[in-house]
Request: fold
Amino acid sequence: MTAVLLVRLSAMGDLVQALGAIAALHRARPDWRLTVATQTPFLPLLEGVPGIARVVPFERRGGLRAVATLRTELQRERYDVALDLQGNWKSAFVARLSGARRCLGAVPRQEPRSRWLLHERIQGPPSRHPALVAHTLVSALVPGLPFTAPRLCATAAERERERAALRALGIDPERPFAVVVGTDPRDPRALRPASIAAELAAAPQGLLLLGPAEADLPTPPGTVVLRHGRGELRRLVALGALVAAAGGEVLGPDQGASHVLAASGARTRVCFGAQDPTATAPPAAVALVHPSPPPCQPCRARTCRHPEGPVCMLFVARDGRTVSTGLPHATS
Reply:
């Protein structure tokens, strides 16, 4: 039996993007044993994913002790192949740490010199889109695999708990409802308050989704707010499933929660400001950009340098321009 290690340590949305390629590999080679190495907070997203036999956690802030623990856990198995789905020094190091006979990664890479840790370098997409990189690498093992969209599934119990949480907020989960993903406004990718307020006002039923990092984020008066805490990523999967079942819709920025909701089946619109949709857009989502974007778009800066702030995100979603992500047609 062939044992394959797939390394995708971060970020949350990028890990979700890689799940389509993992599913395609499992369908083509169900006899192969697939292990995924990722950061500890993202482990709940991999619960129940078909084809993943084992998950190896990595504690990012654990220092040398965490590296030693990771090495011990990895070397409990003998891997035939390790795939670096991320493309930086840390992920390439983890792939080599596994002791796999072959370590493969795509070029170009996020950190180009990390390619020297690989045994084999595979020509990947110029955009380095995480779904395309993952597809390229699994296709190097099994040529001809179809490009597959990521899919997350909630259990019946998880969906029922989330239904109860929505009803407690006054949302009828059996009727279409809108979810707007709110994040820290200091992040240049975040939806601006005007966009959030306009989207919620236009929805017969709408709620603002806030995560643990947005505990103190001010909200418009009368807003229905759904908060999920640390370690509650399964709630996002269940929420996405309920949005899909009710015929609702999600609007969010290019951040992890939007990717999880889209992969859970929810019809999703993602607003892109600084980011390039061809590099990160969820395969099944609609990508929206400013109708008249500033000349500095796209950029990858963590802090906006525009003198007026992140003007690329100053648009209401209904006025946004839909753009092609350039992704191939995905199978489910």
About this structure: Residues 108 and 126 are 7 Å apart (CA to CA).
